[in-house]
Amino acid sequence: MSFVENQNAREVKQSDKPSRKKPMYPVNERLHQYLAQQGREVRLPVTYNDLRNFTWSVPLKDRNGHDTLWEKTSYDSRDWEYIRDGLVRIYAILKTEGDFSFISHLDVARIDYCTFGNSHPFRIRIVNKFNDNYDHYYIKIADASRIYGLELEHILSPNRMTFFTWQNTLVEEHIPGIPGDLFIKQLMDAPDTNKIRLAKEFVKFNERCFVRLLGDMRSYNFVVDITPDVEDYQYRIRCIDFDQQSYEGRKNLYLPQFFKENYPFVNLCLRHLNRESIEQYQFEERTMITFRLASSRYRIMELLDIMTADTISPDTKVNELKTELAEYFENSSFLKCNSMGQVVKTHLKQSLRKNLFLVQRNLGKQADSAL
To answer: What are the structural domains of the chain?
Structure first.
């Protein structure tokens, strides 16, 4: 998808907007077994339902007094010790594979609850009692769409994801970075921001989302991670919301470039990159995705097989998306798909076709066998 084409029609139309309320899809037995095989299924001492039993909450404001859409919760003293101990142990599971020998100096500083969005997450703040340093993680309802999104991110992107499930509970690590909307307001035009490198990264991020069909990547659903480099900075844009993995029916909803919230990034690309550079960065990213796919071919095969047999989107959206992709790529193979999992599998084949051919010369047929 070119950044240069259709510049006057970049905005997502009213009919193209993401669904306001996406239903939660249960984790089926095959997916539970897959997660257990990959070390993702862990018996947790506290569940999402336990955290819902808070007695009251108060709105959290940012340093400027604005509503953050998060609420600070409070629990009955009879439940607090059980919840506090369990949350500290979950942190140890996330960070030290369940070694509890370091938890005596850790405590729960705060539990926040968010009513905005689909997942209604709890954000847990863990503090080191010795030096007051703190860290966060999240507890959410285990939604199959989100789990597929997390796994595809872990396998196909340059980012490693740490998360665990147990029954209806999903535990996720905190992904550090500057929220995209805040980056636009505070750092996009800063004199030391390397706009060319940032534009290059947005092109690659746009490509990653489209290839694996992750939707709704508006600026507040991703973060910008800045790393000092030789004489300058490198940038990595990371997804933080995976609820819309292969759910929507419109193709443009899987391309971050089409959301008006991301126009500052798109305009940056149009100002600093020419068509040839954009196509180069897109091809580079698809090549890296292909190498990752080849190196994890058995894992991605199993995941896509489970996803193909699962229901994570209404039939109307499946039919809409496969029709749009068939027209866009002029490939009737999409019309044979009966599930979102099949659409993702076909789309990976289509998007990575040329890259698969090149990689096969070095890896035999390992890459193509994954699809």
So the answer is: 7-22+176-369 (1.10.1070), 29-141 (no CATH)
